Automatic annotation (TrEMBL):
Origin species: Coemansia reversa (strain ATCC 12441 / NRRL 1564)
All residue ranges annotated as the Lactate/malate dehydrogenase N-terminal domain in the record: 3-145
Name this polypeptide is given: Malate dehydrogenase
Binding site for substrate: 81, 87, 119, 153
Catalytic activity, reaction form: (S)-malate + NAD(+) = oxaloacetate + NADH + H(+)
The organism's taxonomic lineage, starting at the top: Eukaryota, Fungi, Fungi incertae sedis, Zoopagomycota, Kickxellomycotina
UniProt cross-references to CDD domains, sorted A to Z: MDH_glyoxysomal_mitochondrial
EC number: 1.1.1.37
Active-site feature positions: 177
Length: 329
């Protein structure tokens, strides 16, 4: 049985995610942490008659207690976008929140698997890695930036133009998690997609900017919360399934390519050379990243170009994340 902590559990994502995690019968303990409003959220969820016990922790003084004996830490804490903002505009506030939370993870549950939802994911994951390194507890296999929502969107948006397509279609999405760093590899879909060039270009654009659709529709009330909670709950379910079975379970995630240098070789050869982090399809396991799932075949010209564009933008984000930690240490 698995102990899971949600940091930022009273927020838009945090509440829905905690609800979905309460429905996961493989979870034995749910530790819900926030700086506001968590007693009400946790008490409400705790009445659902599933296996897990629900505990709540409010305020920084209770953060260490929340993290005792935790196997998986999920971090959706931080501010969301408003119309007119990019994810990068969230950097200043969310970087300091991630710093505080990941330092506490390093000190209290250094062996836990860590899944970061807080944006900008392209920066917050390298920041988390640097903090864990500085505390001497970094294991690249244990750290994930949650990019599942990009794959969820890809599968759903295909269905919008091909109503007969099963929504469980597998579409690898690589790169990062914002705009042109999101690279859907439609030519690797299983089952194969039958799309014209114009349809491919429109679909790629919609997957890359799907987050903007939600920000616009919420008109100032935040960004995706419900679909994100679904995506993160799916990620956790896959992770726990991989602990419990020998099946090959794959989810996309932004990971440190050092987690599987052999698997990373392929993605680097496609235009991501010199990059430390990249979103890739990951085979999950008890150790976190078991390996990077290799792509079977060659990407299209458009996909290769997309990887190169993503790699150039990601390099800037990763460097900024690393220098943030150096400057603020
Ligand atoms: P929200 O404002 O509704 O909730 C954020 C929560 O974080 C709040 O409850 C707040 O109290 C809490 N919080 C703030 N500082 C904290 C701290 N120091 N410690 C603990 N909790 C703290 O925001 P949301 O809509 O839930 O979004 C959260 C983050 O997730 C945003 O950065 C958003 O951009 C990001 N996001 C990522 C993805 C993705 O695909 N990875 C998708 C959607 C949103
Ligand atoms: C998303 O993809 O929906 C999230 O990253 C939130 C956002 O800011 O778009």
């Amino acid at each position: 049985m698995v102990s899971v902590a949600v940091l930022g559990a009273a927020g838009g994502i945090g509440q829905s995610l905690s609800l979905l995690l309460k429905l996961n019968q493989s979870i034995s303990r749910l530790a819900l942490y926030d700086i506001v409003a968590i007693p009400g959220v946790a008490t409400d969820i705790s009445h659902i008659n599933t296996n897990s016990t629900v505990e709540y922790y409010i305020g920084q003084a209770r953060l260490s207690a929340a993290l005792q004996d935790v196997d998986i830490v999920l971090i959706p804490a931080g501010i969301p976008r408003k119309p007119g903002m990019t994810r990068d505009d969230l950097f200043n506030i969310n970087a300091s929140i991630i710093r505080e939370l990941v330092e506490a993870v390093a000190d209290n549950c250094p062996s836990a698997l860590i899944a970061i939802i807080s944006n900008p994911v392209n920066f917050t994951v390298p920041i988390a890695a640097e903090i864990l390194k500085a505390r001497g507890v970094y294991n690249p296999q244990h750290l994930f930036g949650v990019t599942t929502l990009d794959a969820v969107r890809a599968a759903r948006f295909v269905r919008d133009i091909r109503p007969n397509m099963d929504t469980s279609v597998y579409i690898p999405v690589v790169g990062g998690h914002s705009g042109n760093t999101i690279v859907p590899l439609l030519s690797f879909a299983e089952p194969q997609l039958d799309l014209g060039q114009e349809e491919i270009e429109e679909l790629v654009h919609r997957i890359q900017y799907g987050g903007d659709e939600v920000v616009k529709a919420k008109s100032g009330a935040g960004s995706a919360t419900l679909s994100m909670a679904y995506a993160a709950a799916r990620f956790v379910k896959s992770l726990i399934q991989s602990f419990e079975t020998d099946l090959v379970i794959v989810e996309p995630a932004l990971v440190d390519l050092a987690a599987d240098p052999q698997g990373a070789r392929q993605i680097k050869s496609l235009g991501a050379d010199g990059l430390a982090f990249f979103a890739v399809p990951v085979v999950l396991g008890k150790m976190g990243v078991k390996r990077i799932e290799l792509l079977r075949g060659e990407p299209s010209v458009l996909e290769r170009k997309g990887i190169e564009i993503a790699a150039a933008a990601l390099k800037i984000s990763i460097d900024k994340g690393i220098s943030y930690v150096a400057k603020t240490s």
